[in-house]
Design a protein that fits this description.
Keywords: Nucleus, SH3-binding. The protein is of the alpha+beta class and 113 residues long. The protein has one domain (2-97, 107-112): Glutaredoxin (3-Layer(aba) Sandwich). The chain contains five helices and four strands.
Length: 113
Amino acid sequence: MLSKIITFAVFFQVKKHQQAVVSFLEANRISFQEVDITMQEEQRLWMYNNIPREKKLEKSNPLPPQIFNENRYCGDYEDFFQSKENNTVFTFLRLSSHSRHQNYESTHVDLCI
């Protein structure tokens, strides 16, 4: 029974992190694609193969969300959160300097969920 509780807690935390990233991207009109790695084995393998080695060593099994700009790895939720705290999220997402009047709809971010 304990393993089910832990699994549910991890699932809930992952969903909460995913929603935080999605909400930020939507609020800032940044075009993104959600890639559901639970349903697409090929996408899951692509995600794991494109996470830098040092990130894989930090965490034995990197959890979603993992964020990419095109095919370039940006980071995971913790990296995203730190960039928001440091007011560097647009640099983290590999976007040009943020302007309040700039529209990022032409930019494409992949969010592996």
